[in-house]
Design brief:
The chain is of the alpha+beta class and 181 residues long. The protein is built from four helices and eight strands, in the order ββααβββαβαββ. This is N-acetyltransferase domain-containing protein.
């Protein structure tokens, strides 16, 4: 783990939103949300179809906890103490100061400003610690809610990669957004 990242295992976003680095003890709650939201999440994410048992989620949490601050940083997003979803750096490239941001929420927590506020807080924390200066959001071209987050937060649209991401049995175009701080 990079030394500066130890201070970033918990990020207070606001009075009702908190980000906490993923840990194995959250696996049962996370699993319940993933299973409940699996069909909806699978529209734009490939990984939900591979989460079938609590053991799958425990393994994911254990691997993510171990790699936190090395190649990625996965946070549990809580809204009023309830697990709302995940906000993450799916890839961290400290040598070049680049972080690829990803996020998903349970449907009942959408449209509350959780993702926008959490991503903004994540950017502030990592830029403020001088760890990351270029923040990237990659999303399926037809994922309008994800595109709206990037645009609302002032990310610049850099282009579209054709058939860049396999979701289920389909290859989707991927839009690339970036923000340099």
């Amino acid at each position: 783990m990079t030394k500066n990242i130890e201070n970033l295992q918990a990020i207070a976003v606001g009075p009702s939103i908190n980000l906490k680095s993923i840990s194995q003890d959250v696996a049962p709650r996370l699993h319940d949300v993933i299973i409940r939201e699996k069909e909806r999440l699978s529209e734009f994410l490939h990984w939900p179809r591979y989460i079938n048992s609590l053991d799958d989620t425990i393994r994911f949490c254990a691997t993510s906890e171990k790699s936190f601050g090395n190649s990625n940083a996965i946070y549990i997003a809580e809204f009023n103490g309830e697990l709302a979803g995940v906000i993450s750096f799916n890839n961290l490239d400290f040598a070049n100061g680049i972080g690829d941001i990803g996020y998903w929420l349970a449907g009942n927590h959408e449209k509350k400003g959780i993702v926008s506020n959490a991503v903004e807080a994540l950017i502030g924390a990592y830029a403020g610690s001088r760890l990351i200066r270029r923040f990237v959001i990659k999303c399926a071209s037809r994922n309008r809610p994800s595109r709206a987050v990037a645009e609302r937060l002032g990310f610049k649209f850099e282009g579209t990669l054709e058939q860049a991401e396999k979701i289920g049995n389909e290859y989707l175009d991927q839009r690339i957004y970036a923000r340099i701080v």
